[in-house]
Amino acid sequence: MEQFFTIIGGMGTLATESFINLLNERTPIKKDQDYLNYILVNHATVPDRTEHIMDHSKPSFLPPLLEDIKQQSLLKPEFFVMVCNTAHYYYKELQEVTDIPLIHMPNLAVSSIKKNYPSAKKIGLIATKGTIADHIYEDELKQAGYDYSLGDQEVQDQVESLIYDDIKENGQVDSEKYYGILRVMKEKFDCDAIILGCTELSFAQAKAPDHEYAVIDAQSIIADKTIELALKIRNKEVIDFESIY
């Protein structure tokens, strides 16, 4: 297969499935051959990212992801997409083992704010404890010049419950819980827009999109960028990957 990219997924599987659905639904097609060429690595047994980040005595998710990147690099995809925000904790280590570009999901999400919400000043972040602890989004927001809020412990507990209890464990979205989190971030913490910094939250957004809150859906954004890059590659356009953010 030529002109393909590789998706490093399975963290979790439902969130990866949601990403694949976005890719297929948004790709402009008139026939079967118009769909994108890609390989999906649904590595569901990768250790929990948050557990390791919060406690390094827990199994590391780096070795299996390094193995995935090295194995897939032998097939020479045009680029990699890793659809897990928290896994970007080891982005540098993963990119160092391959010359093939690995798209940086948090960087891409933050760089989209100016275009999508040009008047936004204060950005909220809802994510796993691991993503918050690794400061990836915080660093990106600071560098971009935004004020930001992580909410409080009550918000974080609700977010963790939505991600782990509802989606990861039961495969369901509690829409009222999701809407409640967004409402608190908007009304209590004065956030002009809210980053969904976990692919399970992107899954929640896909299942419960009927609300009035301004969200920055990292998974949706990287899906659009993936399609854009894949179509350019199909048309044999030269891509400067450093300029995509």
Characterization of this structure:
This protein is α/β, with parallel strands linked by helices and 245 residues long. 49% of the residues lie in helices and 12% in strands. The protein contains 12 helices and 8 strands. The protein has helices at 13-26, 49-54, 62-73, 91-96, 105-111, 113-116, 129-134, 136-144, 153-168, 175-187, 199-207, 218-234; strands at residues 5-9, 38-42, 80-82, 102-103, 122-126, 147-149, 193-196, 215-217. The strands form 2 sheets. Strands 2-1-3-4 form a 4-stranded parallel beta sheet, with helices on both faces. Strands 6-5-7-8 form a 4-stranded parallel beta sheet, sandwiched between helices. Strand 3 (80-82), helix 4 and strand 4 form a beta-alpha-beta unit. The chain is globular, with a radius of gyration of 17 Å. The model has no long low-confidence stretch (mean pLDDT 96).
Strand tally: 8
Shape annotation: globular
Query: Which radius of gyration do the C-alpha atoms yield?
Result: 17 Å
Low-confidence stretches: none
Q: Give the strand order, joined by hyphens, for the main sheet.
A: 2-1-3-4
Distance between the termini: 28 Å
Number of helical segments? Answer: 12
How is the main sheet built? 4 strands, parallel
Structure classification: alpha/beta
